Amino acid sequence: MTNEMTDPRNPLDQDIVRDIETLAPQVVDWRRDFHRHPELAFKEQRTSAAVRGFLEAHGIDVRACGGATGLRGVLKGPAGGPIVALRADMDALPVTEETDHGFRSEAPGVMHACGHDGHMAILMGAAHILSARRASLKGDVVFLFQPSEEAYPGGAPGMIADGALDGVSRVFGLHLWQPMPSGVVGIRPGPMMAQSDEFEVVVHGKGGHASQPHLTVDPVLVASHLVVASQTIVSRSIDPVAAAVVSFTTIHGGHAFNITPGGVTLTGTVRTFEPEVQRTVKARLAQICEHTGLAAGATVDLKYTDGYPPLVNDPAMVDVATRMAAREIGAERVRIIPPCMGGEDFAYYLQRVPGAFFMLGIGDNRPYPHHSSRFDIDESVLPVGVRLLTALALGFE
Predict the structure, then answer these.
(1) CB 371 within 8 A of CB 65
(2) Which residues share a beta bridge with 175?
(3) Cα(234)–Cα(55) distance, rounded to whole angstroms?
(4) What is the number of structural domains in the chain?
(5) pLDDT digits (tens, 9 = 90+) for 323-353
(6) Is 177:385 a contact under the CB 8 Å cutoff?
(7) Terminus of the chain with fewer CB atoms < 10 Å: N or C?
(8) Catalytic residue among 44, 97, 149, 314
(9) If 0-12 CB within 10 Å is exposed, 13-18 middle and 19+ buried, where does residue 287 land?
(10) Residue 66 — left, alpha, or beta (φ > 0 → left; ψ -120 to 50 → alpha)?
């Protein structure tokens, strides 16, 4: 779908491209500084202060948004023009870093293990380039630096409630993506990332001496049956052409080899794209918990929390982003990718404003996946991200 409001202009002029290339070492330095000083969700005080100082120094109007650490910066263009929002997430993960580079995390037990440090550096690079070209803007550019993408309920709902999208006509975001080759853009129209729910299961049994199992109700055994039985939900209750994930990720119970504990707690996640599939998974998990407990003489409590909704890209904005990326980096480096079962609270922005979220590959010679203690990014890709976001901000008439 193409019209005068959604047709990207020609590729960036060579002066902009050269300025981005010149800026590249600074973008890497910004990323490394954030990497050394990671902060968890809603605790991004140092990060937020650094970003605020940067935006103010570039003459960008900035205010707190969505809590103490979120920021909304506005670069003013002509009144009445389209307002384009660009978003970066700021939070790190509770992971102890095990890399050997010279800018390792200095915060014990906290690490940028997902690429958010790079996202911030890229958006700062775009802000730097755009602020020097105010006369070229067709409307305002809004820079959203968002807290807490990693931790439910996420930072996006608070940002939106605090006016992050006021007047915005388009919103774009990117995610550095280890599964793809470096410098490749991956995108798709419609559902691209999954709804990400979480659950907690508590098995209440009867503890006792492990040598007398007949006098106990063993919650470890019940938990084991629960995990196995729940694997039939996807294989036997969901249409094979639909997508769903049911994963148990933690099990805690007991403290001694010769004591049957009185209870076991399990947690996990469910990933779906379609509401009916999500309802089926939720109902079947509840049935399995209840009936497995009854069969063993235990009681089982299930707490199920609906997480981020599916991330659904606007097809027209995907068309814009795809053609823009093809013009900037070459059509051979732009791919329509399959849906991903990961979750992203950028989904909330897309429920309010037309936009698109895309992946930017950083996987060359980077074998460790997102959230790994050895995760790292290909920093040579950072200026590519700057170029893409800059082009999206300048590319609307």
Answers:
(1) no
(2) 359
(3) 47
(4) 2
(5) 999 999 999 999 999 999 999 999 999 999 9
(6) no
(7) N
(8) 149
(9) middle
(10) left
Structural domain harbouring 365: 14-191+311-394
CA separation for the pair 48, 64 (Å, rounded): 9
Residue 11: per-residue pLDDT: 76
Are 91 and 147 a contacting pair, CB within 8 Å? yes
Residue range 78-127, pLDDT digits in tens: 888 999 999 999 999 999 999 999 999 999 999 999 999 999 999 999 99
Q: What is the CATH number of the domain that holds 202?
A: 3.30.70.360
Respond yes or no: is residue 91 known to be catalytic: yes
Strands 195-204 and 190-193: unpaired
* Cβ-contact 164, 62 below 8 angstroms: no
Q: Are 95 and 61 in contact (CB under 8 A)?
A: no
Quick count: other Cβ atoms within 10 Å of Cβ 189? 16
Q: Are 312 and 350 in contact (CB under 8 A)?
A: yes
For position 79, what pLDDT does the model report?
A: 86
pLDDT at position 10: 60
H or E segment and range at residue 86:
strand 84-89
Q: Which residues of the chain have pLDDT under 50?
A: 1-9
Q: What is the pLDDT of residue 3?
A: 39
328 and 303 together in one domain? no
pTM above 0.85, yes or no: yes
Same domain, 204 and 292: yes
CB 308 within 8 A of CB 288: no
Which one from 39, 89, 91, 345 is the annotated catalytic residue? 91
Q: Could you tell me if residue 1 is inside a domain?
A: no
How many residues comprise the chain? 397
Cα distance between residue 93 and residue 115, in whole Å: 10
| Last residue in a domain, options 286, 308, 330 | 308
Q: CA end-to-end span of the chain, whole Å?
A: 15
CA 170 to chain centre: 19
Phi/psi class of residue 167: alpha, beta or left (left: φ > 0; alpha: ψ in -120 to 50)? left
Please give the radius of gyration of the chain, using alpha carbons only, rounded to the nearest integer: 23
Token pair of 212, please?
């007398």
Across the strands, what pairs with 72? 63, 144
